Amino acid sequence: MYLTKLTCTACGTDHDHRKLQNLCTKCAKPLYPQYDLVAASRTLTKEALRTRVKSLWRYREVLPVLDEADIVTLGEGWTPLLPAPRLGAKHGMKHLYIKDEAQNPTASFKARGMTAAVTMAKQLGAKKVAAPSAGNAAGALAAYAARAGLEAYLFMPLDTPKACVIECYELGAHVTLMKGLITDCGAEVARRKEAEGWFDVSTLKEPYRVEGKKTLGYELAEQLNWTLPDAILYPTGGGTGLVGMWKAFDEMEQMGWIGSKRPRMYSVQADGCQPIVRAFNAGEKFAAEHLGAATRASGLRVPKAVGDFIMLDLLRKSGGGAIAISDAEMIACTREVGSAEGVFTAPEGGACYAALKHLLAAKTIAPDETVVVFNTGSGLKYLECFGG
Fold first, then answer.
1. In the chain, where the domains are located
2. pLDDT tens column, 201-255
3. Fold of the CATH domain 81-108+208-385
4. Where are the beta strands (DSSP E) in the chain?
5. Which of 25, 198, 326, 376 is 20 to 30 A from 81, comparing alpha carbons?
6. pTM as predicted
């Protein structure tokens, strides 16, 4: 297709996209796929999209696939952008939306990244894939690996939501539950991958999960008639979706689909695990590990992200920010969203609505602006978090 190379996000070193790659071989930072956008835009047009499949692979010219026949898909993407009129009315807002990623296969946004990562891993010869996960990424990798005929090796904290663990077992994955956090699970994958013959598909430690996630940006633009919202609130663990959308906006501008205006991007974290919030507020380029991380929103319990510098840079460039929410508030807001709009969000989605209320109160977001709040997964996968 139109994939041309991989480029390091930090030092700019180019890498070969025709073989399996993890981090930059020079500085160990994430790699970004690059495309021939001029050639891609000859067939990837706004008009062509009107008749294309309702999945994220509608944007296949700017996705990592060498042959369309090799795409590993379960019908992911093109999730609804739901108006939220009753929630909006509480705050005098007429243009509030929920991007509901729970309607993906495996009931979370992780399906987006894994369709792209597993598609390329299979094309490039991987037989076994491995990853650490707080739950939803493991379920997605298990599903797409099964779909592709690959073996999946998954490492999760002992207190991972039970639904996610069962999901992985039933999808045929090899599951290891460990004491500690996702960082401990990641260290175990790194320690064993060479001897075991695993390809590591950890967040931003391989180049293609971000490509699946970037389709969030393409979809938002298309669903809003090729305009972008004024603000986006996104729950942030590893941050792949956040940085993926930013990459999508740049690509769309290069293809002439949108202008230079960007949404203000807001990273939403838990107050028990807020490395990006702390680093943003301190004006730092990198985020120190959040020691003793603890939150019931397992997807937000990522104490150290390899793409921290990318996130912090885009938050500042966008004029956005970072905000931490307590577990109690995000759980309460999950019920508020559900009872008003009929969407049973994951705690991470509740956290984004809680953040919106804080930002409105601080007049950082104005009621007349167009705002998109992300729900990244189904509340059904977090039943341990909720009372009767």
1. 81-108+208-385
2. 998 899 999 999 999 999 999 999 999 999 999 999 989 999 999 999 999 999 9
3. Rossmann fold (3.40.50)
4. 3-8, 14-15, 31-35, 81-83, 96-100, 128-132, 151-157, 174-178, 199-200, 231-235, 264-270, 321-325, 371-375
5. 326
6. 0.95
